Every structure is written in structure tokens, then in C-alpha cells.
Amino acid sequence: MTKAKIxxxxxxxxxxxxxxxxxxxxxxxxxxxxxxxxxxxxxTDIEAxxxxxxxxxxxxxxxxxxx
Amino acid sequence: MAVFHKxxxxxxxxxxxxxxxxxxxxxxxxxxxxxxxxxxxKTIGIAPVGCSVFAYDYFNFDMAEAAHGRAxxxxxxxxxxxxxxxxxxxxxxxxxxxxxTAETVHAACRGENITxxxxxxxxxxxxxxxxxxxxxxxxxxxxxxxxxxxINGYPIKICEMLATQExxxxxxxxSTHNVKQVLxxxxxxxxxxxxxxxKKGFSIVExxxxxxxxxxxxxxxxxxxxxxxxILYYPLGIFKDKDAEVKNA
Amino acid sequence: MARQLIKGNEAIAEAAxxxxxxxxxxxxxxxxxxxxxxxxxxxxxxxGTFIQAESEISAINMVYGAAAAGGRAMxxxxxxxxxxxxxGISYIAASDVPCVIVNVMRAGPGLGGxxxxxxxxxxxxxxxxxGDYKLIVYAPSSVQEAADYTYKAFDxxxxxxxxxxxxxxxxxxxxxxxxxxxxxRDLSALPKxxxxxxxxxxxxxxxxxxxLRIQPDELERYIDGLYKKYDAIRQNEIEVExxxxxxxEIILAAYGIVARICKGAILKLRKMGIKAGLIRPITLxxxxxxxxxxxxxxxxxxxxxxxxxxxxxxxxxxxxAIGGKKPVAFYGRTGGxxxxxxxxxxxxxxxx
Lengths: 67, 249, 352
Description:
Oligomer: heterotrimer
Number of domains of chain A: 1
Strand order of the largest sheet of chain A: 1-4
CATH topology of chain A: Alpha-Beta Plaits
Number of strands of chain C: 15
CATH superfamily of the largest domain in chain C: Thiamin diphosphate (ThDP)-binding fold, Pyr/PP domains
CATH architecture of the largest domain in chain C: 3-Layer(aba) Sandwich
Largest sheet of chain C: 7 strands, mixed
Radius of gyration of chain A: 11 Å
Distance between the termini of chain C: 46 Å
Number of strands of chain A: 4
């Protein structure tokens, strides 16, 4: 199954993927802070992910792989 | 099988750009396009002065760092020595449309077979948010704190201007404010690079981008600003395409 | 080899082509416009590239690009245009990129005049552009030397990976003399540049031509390296002519066309019984300090006189070199006026 995977440590918490996801299953963590000091993006419902990769298209830091 | 995988034409160095800055998107699009054309080993890129001054650390090609505004001149020198290399300039609005206007215009007029990626975010990011020649009316910046108005003159329109010149082969303005626009931007960037590979002449893609930090907006709001405000003055579209002219002749 | 009558500017251009220069970028400005004009015809004959750039600034940046890509590249201009190029020259020097820059000096400052001068010595030798760097500067004194040193400049530039300047004046650029031009170089015999941009074929490291070093320690280390290079240049590349200095009591210091005028003045002075001689620096950087210092030590030498087409620029290096051991006087003309032998001789004979 093709699914997106976000590298939380590389993420800068910009939120562009949140707006790009057509399934609305990405959000910025409210509790976790990564090593860079950002609230990283997380996929909240991986089952619902359709592997469209629009999140990856919008990510400015190439944190998302889809495979 | 990977649907989306990081291109090998970007190095592993993390971008230093602000969170949500679309520089990162455009770097990726350019690198992906070059990888897809299979010409990575014959590519030389020229980095500007601006937020992307360290572009030589991110693009996995032989790279040169130009003086502010002079990338098209440096690209001219490089391309004349290596006409079979893909030579691209990546420049911001100060670099290309302020100090470098003469170099930009004359590289186009000479019909230099190079590709310029013009990052237009209407502000000087690296130096802390001063007005750019492309800052739109009403927009605030540190050197127009009350918002740009008539006393600051009018924003310069590069694509429109270059389109009037015989030497310009292709000029298109695109945006990065949502996924559809980003994918469209990639199409235009690929065309601009392919024109060079096919030895057609001077190509420029003007990319409307954001600056959340100096626009004092969240990344998402900054993309809305492009969509609702910037595009009114800087409409998207193809301003010059000699391929189309040839077809219609 | 045949001698031919040729104008200084054209000799410089032809010598450059024969030395392997295949990339010329320049802009018209009096008194050197013959150089781009000549190149526009000649380079296409040898498969080279000529571009009349939109400005002197653009031209130096085109040189930066072509040279960074491994080509033998050159630009030329005159004083105000060389001012425009300074940022580019600093960048080229700070990237260890070789190239040749020709300055056919005219009267300054400002738009100034179009007649000869030597008012750009400071600009050429003491910087001109920002930061700690040096150029190798050759000051030819004849059309033959202008050709020979232009020819040599490309080799020296490549050897040390440094910009080299040919510092002429409008007189040399415009005058015609009999010259034996150097032979056309076989380009395939030139050494390969393993640092130049070419498109990374994944063999060896990726190449970056860059002058930005944002970490202070890194930049300081780099500058130390530049100055080690300049030490080697000082060791190996100084060129100077001593003319009738052995028994001289008054030693003139002059370069370029003024040195020739001084030689004539010296012959007149000698007829008057005044033992004059000349030290003619050919490299202005590296400056022949030891030659001046050596003569300053001699009991027979009473004074030095710097003769320049300026208000006195090289005189400072003469003073530094002789360390106060003997007095240094100055004779100069500006505005585009050029002194003649009698002017120099009467100044010296007048005992100033």
C-alpha cells in the first residue's frame, strides 16, 4: 500500500502539508517538539492515506517520502 | 515502488530557509526537472546573493556563486565555454530585478541559451525585509513602513518587459501558492530547461513565492496572500513563447 | 620572426589571442576601444567568443564565469571602467580564478579626460576592490613589452590562479611601434584545470567556484592561504630594470611610458655631468623593494626622484622600500598632460 511517511526530525512545522492533504489527515503535533524546536507534522490516520503525495509536493524541506 | 522520493540532485544538507518558505519547493522542482531530463552530469548552476546564496550547498551540481545581480553575465561566460552544459541561474527579486536588471535584460536580448529561475516574493528576505522592486502597492516593508505607495515608484514587471524583446524565447509567470500551482510551476520550469537543452534560446520562469517571516504572516496565510493579492498585480501565464509563434506561423 | 608595425592596443589583443585567450568580454571606452574592436574580428577567426557586454560590470562578471569554467578569458577598459570592475575583480581574486584585465589608463578622477595618465597605480596595486587581496600587475614600457607581458600574463595567471593586470596608459595604447609578436600557442598543450566548472560527472569532488566564506575562521584561513600565494609570487615574479644605476647619484623611479621619457632625460643629464640613473619596476606588484633598498644603501646615491603621470602614487612604495635612508622628491603631471625629456631633465638639474 502506498503511504506517506514524514521525517519528523527534519520537519519545520510550517503546516503547508496540512493544507495540501485532501484527506485532512495531517496535523502539527501539539505536544511533541523535535530536535530543531518545531512542532512536527504527523499523519493522524495512516489507514486513510491514499498515497497521493500532494503533501510531499508541498513540503519545502523534502521531509515526506511516499512509497 | 516510490511514488515520491527525494531527488538525487539535491544534496543531503537541510535547507536553512524559514519554515514554510517556498524556496525549498522551487529548489526541489528545479532539481527534479534536471534529474528527469537525465542531464545532471552536464549541469552548472549559478547561485545569487539573497536568501538562496547558499544554493551551491543544496544543488548537487557544479555550482558558481555570482556577485549580486550578475548571475546572467556569469552564466553567459560559463555557457560560452561549455555550450553543451545546462546552465541555469536561480535569482531573487533584488538580484534579478534591482541591481541585476541590465544583466537580465541583456542576456535575454542577446538570446543567451540559458535558463533563469526568478524567485519573486516582493521583499528582500536575507537582509531583513526591505522593499523590493516587486513589492506590491500597499505592502509594508522596512524601507516603506507605511506600505508601498506612489512615492516609492511602481513595481517592475519582468516577464512583461522581457516578452517585448526579440531575444526572449520563453517567459512565463507561475506561482507556488497551492499544489495545483506548484505542479504547474514544475511544468513551466521543465519547459524552460528543455528549451535550453534543445538550444532554443533564452528562457525565464518567474515564480511567485512567499516570505512568511518578513510578510509577518503564517506560512498558510502567506500563500493566501499570493493567491488573493500578489496575483492581481502579477498575473500568471505565458508572456512569450516562440514555440507557439512558430506553430501559428 | 617578422617584425610588424602595430598599435599598442592591437598588439595587446593579438598577443592575448596567441597566448590562448578565446574569451573576450569588454565595452568601448577611450583610449582602449581598439581592443574590443580588434577582438570582435580576430576571435571569430580562431573559434573564440567575443561579446560587447552591456557594461564594464557585466564584462568582468562574464570573465568570472568563463574563467571559472576553465577558459582563458580577458577584459579591458580604461580607468573609470576599471573602477566599475572592482567588485568583480575582488570576487575573482577571492575565488582563485585566473584571468587577465587590461587597464589603458586615462586622466582621472571622475570622467576626467581621455589623454594618458598613471593615476590608477593605487587602484591596481593597493586593492581597488574591497578586502585583502592582490593582483599581479605588469607595467609595460613599449608596445613590444605590452605584447610580451600580455602573452605571459595568461600563463602567470593560470600558474598562481590569480587575476593579472596589464597596466598601460593611453600613450602606449595608441602608439605604433615595430613588434615581434609571440607565436600562436597550441591550446592542447595548456595544462588542464582540475578545479574548473564543467558539469559534475560524479568523478572526483563536485566543484564550486565561490568567494563566500561566512565562518570567520574559514575566511581567515583562506586569506592566509592567499597571502602565502603572494609570498611565492614575491619570491619568483619580480621584474625590474636598472638603467645606468651603477654610478648614479640621483636615481629616478618611473614605470611605463614615463620610464622611457626618463631614459631620454637621463642621457641629457649625463651630458650635463649629472650622474642620473633609473629603476624601472616592470612588476608593480610584486614591487621590487629590494632593488630600491639596495641602491638606497649606497653612499654614492644622494636622492631618489619619483616621476609619474599623477600626483604621486608609486612614490609611496619607493619611500617604503628605502625606509627613509635617502630623500625622495617627486615630479609629475596630471590632467592628461605628459612631461617630456626636457621637463624631467630641467626639474632634476634644478636641484629640487
